[in-house]
Automatic annotation (TrEMBL):
It is found in: Plastid, Chloroplast. It comes from Pyrus ussuriensis x Pyrus communis. This is adenylate kinase. Belongs to the adenylate kinase family. Monomer. The chain holds residues 76 to 297 of 596 of the full protein. Transmembrane segments: none annotated.
Length: 222
């Protein structure tokens, strides 16, 4: 069948569940997941030039300078796998300038998701988050504890997940949110993220399935 790959953006405050939903979206739709947070953390842990530039900003809970992140993201988006399978952009754009950079390059998504979660829930989710450095899987000490003792023993906490830094990340998010949504207002889908991850995914899944169907119809008609 004719297929035009999906192009999806997901946004939301720190710990609103972007990474968690991306895991589920990738499993079902096979998109290439491009998370700027994950890409930057990988650069930091391998001690690259980008990583060295990004490290102090990230650890302080501040945004890494636009030019560093934009170069990294546009390089990743232009790889063959992203063009063939479609992409799921997570954590970018995070400022008005970043949104403008994509517009200039005519990189425009089919749908822009915004996960909406109350502040007090966000703090608890961040402080309880743990990552598995081996599989990249995201856990939570209360909501999603690790499956085995072996996994539990190797889990790590992100240096920017203290209550104080979460508050500063949240403030920066709120300052930028409106100017970014303005760019994508015609394709924006606000999702209530304050439910179990499966319930949140059901909503996202039904929207994406519809968007995919619409794209196929458009190709057939075109
Ligand atoms: P990034 O990694 O993107 O961090 P973030 O936006 O703060 O988002 P998080 O990763 O904290 O949360 P998430 O929404 O993915 O939630 P998760 O699924 O893990 O960025 C980190 C840093 O990199 C930035 O601060 C900045 O310095 C830099 N950076 C990145 N992009 C940049 C850019 N474009 N420009 C400049 N700098 C940039 O879930 C959180 C927790 O909640 C987990 O424990 C999870 O298990 C739990 N949880 C998830 N869903 C649910 C649910 N439905 N119910 C209960 N618990 C849940």
């Amino acid at each position: 069948s004719l297929k035009e790959p999906l192009k999806v953006m997901i946004s939301g405050a720190p710990a609103s569940g972007k990474g968690t939903q991306c895991e589920l979206i990738v499993n079902k739709f096979g998109l290439v997941h491009i998370s700027t947070g994950d890409l930057l953390r990988a650069e930091v842990s391998s001690g690259t030039e980008i990583g060295n530039k990004a490290k102090e900003f990230m650890n302080a809970g501040r945004l890494v300078p636009d030019e560093v992140v934009t170069a990294m993201v546009t390089a990743r988006l232009s790889c063959d796998d992203a063009k063939e399978k479609g992409w799921l952009l997570d954590g970018y754009p995070r400022s008005f300038n970043q949104a403008q950079s994509l517009q200039k390059l005519k990189i425009i998504p089919d749908v822009y998701f915004v996960l909406d979660v109350p502040d007090e829930t966000l703090i608890d989710r961040c402080v309880g988050r743990r990552l598995d450095p081996v599989t990249g899987k995201i856990y939570h000490i209360k909501s999603f504890p690790p499956e085995t003792e072996e996994i539990k023993a190797r889990l790590i906490t992100r240096p920017d997940d203290t209550e104080e830094k979460v508050k500063s990340r949240l403030e920066i998010y709120k300052k930028n949110a409106d100017s970014i949504s303005a760019t994508y207002s015609n394709i924006m889908k606000k999702i209530d993220g304050n439910h179990s991850k499966d319930v949140v995914f059901e909503v996202i899944d039904s929207i994406l399935s519809q968007v995919q169907k619409d794209k196929e119809t458009k190709i057939k008609l075109g």
